[in-house]
């Protein structure tokens, strides 16, 4: 049966090659897009979880620009914590510009599970490496330096001086030295004290703050106090806006979900067009092969045997095209992810969806074949009348 | 034994019913060489198709080896077609993408014969039709006479008791025609196979035990 199927595929190799390539491209695009869509959904879910925890975001805008960039000293953070009874949180991340060249003095910590951290190495500038002292300023609650060792949530973290060969986008690597794209992780930064002071003057550091709503059941008094203190630090050069993570989730939607979602829809549309093309091609092939089937039936084959042979043929075709498409899609997701704010990963659900679609496609191609074979009239096809 | 009683076959073309077979009664005993003879369109091939379980009667009764063919399921019909009948067509109908040997093996495959046995039997059949050692050749490299010999070998593959030949010499020159009919006659005599042959060629009537004129 398989031998017959392979023989028929070989006979119709041109049509089948065309179908397989078309299918592979569609599945690749679909896999690529769906990976983005599912990753985006996961990011939104995470954001929604944070929303449910009720944090309120505060953004600082220097000179009324639409960016948030206020740098806090350790003492100021400490004060804010005191004012807010510990409800004040902050994160800081720096732009790619800071992550280029050896003259910068910031380090990068990824936000991921503690267990994951041991798999990565952080490179810092040689200047910062030599000055990893307690006198360093971190823009994150969870990072500290004790006796020259970086700690993240209390876990020691391997830090190495940045080799000259490493470019701005390769500051974090796996232990094996494999570069990790900066786009895949949310970064925190830290600065040596003197650089921090310079940066603060130049408004180079992007920061954002938030308050737990557990402490906000006071008709906004805590928020009001926090804003007044932040305005003092800003020295009149800043305005502050109060938002929530709902807006952040909306941002994910606007910038990171819509475009991949369109790609996903395009992928589905292309897959449908390809499916129609494949069904059409299969019908054409069947029409050509009708007499072969009639001869086989006259020689004693059952319809079921012919259906099994054709199903085998379609499955070989779809599995080949589908698997190649999945591989191309997976490689594209890993190597060329869409410029997103969240890590894009190929998940099991994407593979499962691919498999389901391939299964539906197989059925869509096999059912007309079955109907046609069941309707074959041997005597008509052999021109016996 | 094959027996048709009060057999009718009607085709509906453009809304009009046309009786191709009308009240046909025919009995074929084992070992006979019968020729169905008549002008084109008189229903010879239709009758052969019905005998070979390729087509059904509109009304009447058809018994093959005592079994009523009209009540057979598709699967049963395929099984009987494979075991009882060997079909030889005017246009040979060898599968062009299979070699001569593979073409001959098809009915054996559908019967479920082991592969080694299939190969052994193919060799014997090729010798029998005078095509020994040509199992690897493809039909498009063969002459019409050679293709028909392969078709005969294929028809004999499962040692069927009945050989049905539909104008087997229609596409052949006179030399090849004589060779093929002689071969069929030889198979009838030596192996005792029942042969039902359709032809409109009067020259061939001499080979038959009985001629049924339609």
Distance between the termini of chain A: 31 Å
Summed over residues and divided by their number, the pLDDT of chain B gives a mean of: 89
CATH architecture of chain B: 3-Layer(aba) Sandwich
User: What is the assigned CATH homologous superfamily of chain B?
Assistant: P-loop containing nucleotide triphosphate hydrolases
Shape estimate of chain A: elongated
Characterize the largest beta sheet of chain B: strand count, sense, and whether it forms a barrel.
5 strands, parallel
Q: What is the CA-CA span between the terminal residues of chain B?
A: 21 Å
* Coarse shape of chain B: globular
Largest sheet of chain A: 4 strands, antiparallel
Describe this structure in words.
The complex is a heterodimer of chains A (385) and B (214). In chain A, a hairpin with a 2-residue loop joins strand 6 (143-146) and strand 7. Chain A is of the alpha+beta class. In chain A, the strands form 4 sheets. Chain A has a 4-stranded antiparallel β-sheet. A 3-stranded antiparallel β-sheet of chain A has the order 3-11-5. A 3-stranded mixed β-sheet of chain A has the order 9-4-10. The two termini of chain A are 31 Å apart. Chain A has 2 domains: 2-46 and 252-381, no CATH class; 64-236, no CATH class. Chain A has helices at 2-11, 13-53, 74-83, 114-117, 126-130, 193-202, 221-234, 245-298, 303-335, 348-375, 378-381, and strands at residues 56-62, 88-93, 107-110, 120-124, 136-138, 143-146, 149-152, 155-157, 159-161, 172-174, 187-192, 206-211, 238-244. Helices cover 55% and strands 16% of the residues of chain A. Chain B has a single domain (2-213), classed as P-loop containing nucleotide triphosphate hydrolases (Rossmann fold, 3-Layer(aba) Sandwich). Chain B is built from 6 helices and 9 strands; from the N terminus they run E-E-E-H-E-E-H-E-H-H-H-E-H-E-E. The longest helix of chain B is centred in the last third of the chain and has 18 residues, at 174-191. The chains are: A alpha+beta (385), B alpha/beta (214). Chain A binds chain B through residues 7-8, 11, 291-292, 295-305, 378-379, 382-385, and chain B through 11, 20, 45-46, 48-49, 52, 54-55, 74-75, 78-79, 81-83, 87, 89, 91, 93, 95, 97, 106-107, 110-111, 154, 158, 166.
